[in-house]
Amino acid sequence: MLTRRMLLAAGLVAAPLSSWAAPTIVVPEIDSLALTLLADSTVSSFATPVERPGLKILPPERAASSYRLTLRGEWGYSVLADAAGAGARHRVLIDFGYTPETLASNMALLGVDPASVDAMVLSHGHYDHFGGLAAVVGRVKRGTPLYIGGEEAFCARLRGVSPDGPSFGQLEKADLVAAGIDLRVAAAPREVAGIGFTTGRIPFVSPEKPRVPTSMLPGQGCRRADLDADRRDVDFFVDDAVHELGTAFHLKGKGLVVIGSCSHRGIINTVRAAQAVSGVDKIHAIMGGFHLVPPQTREQALQTLTLMQALKPDYILPGHCTGEAFIAPAIAQMPDQVFRTVVGSRVIFG
């Protein structure tokens, strides 16, 4: 068994927070947190509840009036965060799944009113994370902030890394502005709705080397002047997801709950960025897509598992693009800490 000392010696774990720069923002501390999975690939009528210290995972209730209506699963990711702290409760919608039809149907069946959302976060500019946004545009309150990590989220994208690849869509900035969405585009970390925060740009501090399976077309849908210098003057650029954000919450007495929606910058790097931003070392839970499906290899998945174990999270809740090469050995090695979720799962902390 690899110990943390051995991992540090091998350079597989970043230095402790005490050696990092001071936290960049003051993050809110919350008393409770519930995460409802609105979009993912897996739908099940046979999910069972889980209860562990400080954690409950409740399966979706049968809320439809007809057996013909059911929750929908598709490739993509969306999660709703409900948190209470400082005497107030707020809601943050993180990502929007692949299609507006699926997100709208699932929100309706789960009783989620878009008008109740206080803020939104888009992790990155891939269609399986922003495609469902049309389901809430025009239904959230005017002036609702949407946090985005950089202008390149608006660039048109291609599937694959060839200039001849098929389209992978683009996020229409003008439509969002016209609908009264308050776009907050920044590479720096930001507090979100008084309950959470974004990581800002995620540096590579671990050995993770994820490959992003898309390309971007600078100047198409995005302003060249607002892009990084190395991509302003080209017409094609293989994605490195430099604009991707993680979203995190500081749960009082427990530590951080970190959501890496797709983790194209590496889930370990995402967690380390949340630690550095907040100054909080303890990890209560890591949730989301860890981007360990092909072209990532089984060896990369197992390395990520070793790195994650060294972070000593209380719980791990993988989904979306994580892949069985990680999930199966993680459950085998950490059966009381690693749990699957399905569309409609409600994960309650605190």
N-C termini distance: 31 Å
- Radius of gyration based on Cα positions: 19 Å
Low-confidence stretches: 1-11
Provide mean pLDDT, rounded.
93
* Helical segment count: 7
* Series of secondary-structure elements, N-terminal to C-terminal: HEEEEEEHEHEEHEEEEEEEHEHEHE
Oligomer: single chain
Q: Strand portion, in percent? A: 15-25%
Q: According to CATH, what is the class?
A: Alpha Beta
CATH superfamily: Ribonuclease Z/Hydroxyacylglutathione hydrolase-like
The number of E-state strands comes to 19
Spatial order of the strands in the main sheet?
A: 3-4-19-2-5-6-7-8-10
Helix-residue proportion? 10-25%
Largest sheet, in brief, is: 9 strands, mixed
The CATH architecture can be given as: 4-Layer Sandwich
What structural category characterises the helix and strand content?
alpha/beta
Question: Judging from the principal axes of the Cα atoms, what is the shape?
Answer: globular
Find the CATH topology: Metallo-beta-lactamase, Chain A
Q: How many structural domains can be distinguished in the coordinates?
A: 1
Describe this structure as you would to a colleague.
This protein has 350 residues and is of the alpha/beta class. The strands form three sheets. Strands 3-4-19-2-5-6-7-8-10 form a nine-stranded mixed sheet. Strands 1, 11, 12, 15, 16, 17 and 18 form a seven-stranded mixed sheet that branches. A three-stranded antiparallel sheet has the order 9-13-14, with no helix packed on it. Helix 6 crosses helix 7. It is globular. It is built from seven helices and 19 strands. It has a single domain, classed as Metallo-beta-lactamase, Chain A (4-Layer Sandwich), CATH 3.60.15. 18% of the residues lie in helices and 25% in strands. This is MBL fold metallo-hydrolase. Keywords: Signal. InterPro entries: DHPS-like_MBL-fold, Metallo-B-lactamas, Metallo-beta-lactamase_dom, RibonucZ/Hydroxyglut_hydro. Pfam families: Lactamase_B.
